[in-house]
Amino acid sequence: MADPLTLHDPDDPRLHDYTDLTDVQLRRRREPAEGLFIAEGEKVIRRAVQAGYAMRSMLLSAKWVDVMRDVIDATPAPVYVVDPALAEQVTGYHVHRGALASMRREPLPAVSDLLRATPAPGRGEGTVRRVAVFEDIVDHANVGAAFRNAAALGIDAVLLSPRCADPLYRRSVKVSMGAVLQVPWTRLESWPADLGTLRAEGFTVAALCLSDRAVTLDELAARKLGKLALLFGTEGTGLTPGALEAADEHVRIPMDAGVDSLNVAATSAVVFYVTRPGPA
């Protein structure tokens, strides 16, 4: 535990982790390269700590010091106190939640290790049975919302194609309310070839799409498959031909009023709920 230290200079090198948070392109490159991500707000910071991520530092406005006292007392990381104007000058936006933490990224697990892991307590019946797979979802808010759905609706693990947005980018973490820190995830390096790993582990890969061979979501759910991987693409172009070819099943959500698709956040919520597993 270190006593909170008040800083006054926006160019202080100790504030480097928090600079230019609104520059999406810069932060997308910088954060993975430097092995960090930013947790914003009390709830998300606490979830990051509870999930086992190590803290590099914390940046607080004065009124948040007492609120975060237990976290401060439990961490060896430095805690910097700044006034709101300085925080805005450093980060590039008004930090209305008053609390930021720079957290250390952990190495991503291998896909096979993730699929064989024992789900966390309350997240499964001893084996991974439901996996969400996202292809080329580049919007950070959509990624965050999808992770929040996954946490709430029985998904044991999430797999991302190489082009998907970073789940640990600040906006993704914020929209997910910290769910990206709770649901195990990793990236598939060879796309879509790595979908074969799911099949090798006994999963049926079901692609959400509008193809002629698609069965309804209700039909898929009625099969009560033991291990199911649910594959989602972008709202505009959907899944790529390679991903569709690699899937075992094509699945559609029946819709009314001439609507043929929903965005990935809405689609994933519906699909996760309908296909949630019963007792093992």
Account of the protein in words:
With 280 residues, the protein is α/β, with parallel strands linked by helices. It folds into 2 domains: 5-104, Ribosomal protein L30/S12 (60s Ribosomal Protein L30, Chain: A, 2-Layer Sandwich), CATH 3.30.1330; 111-274, Alpha/beta knot (3-Layer(aba) Sandwich), CATH 3.40.1280.10. It contains 11 helices and 12 strands. It has helices at 24-34, 42-50, 69-74, 84-91, 111-116, 140-152, 170-175, 195-200, 217-222, 241-246, 264-274; strands spanning 5-6, 36-40, 55-60, 79-81, 99-104, 130-134, 157-160, 185-187, 204-208, 215-216, 228-232, 249-252. The strands form 2 sheets. A 7-stranded parallel sheet has the order 8-7-6-11-9-12-10. The protein has a 5-stranded mixed sheet with strand order 1-4-3-5-2. α7 links the parallel β7 (157-160) and β8 (185-187). α6 packs parallel to α11. 44% of the residues are buried.
Topology record:
Blueprint: E1 5-6, H1 24-34, E2 36-40, H2 42-50, E3 55-60, H3 69-74, E4 79-81, H4 84-91, E5 99-104, H5 111-116, E6 130-134, H6 140-152, E7 157-160, H7 170-175, E8 185-187, H8 195-200, E9 204-208, E10 215-216, H9 217-222, E11 228-232, H10 241-246, E12 249-252, H11 264-274
Parallel strand pairs: 1-4, 3-4, 6-7, 6-11, 7-8, 9-11, 9-12, 10-12
Antiparallel strand pairs: 2-5, 3-5
Counting helices, strands and paired strands, the structural category is: alpha/beta
How much beta, percentage-wise?
15-25%
N-to-C series of helices and strands: EHEHEHEHEHEHEHEHEEHEHEH
Give me the count of strands. Answer: 12
Stated plainly, the CATH topology of the largest domain is called: Alpha/beta knot
Please name the CATH architecture of the largest domain: 3-Layer(aba) Sandwich
Instruction: Average the pLDDT over all residues and give the rounded result.
Output: 93
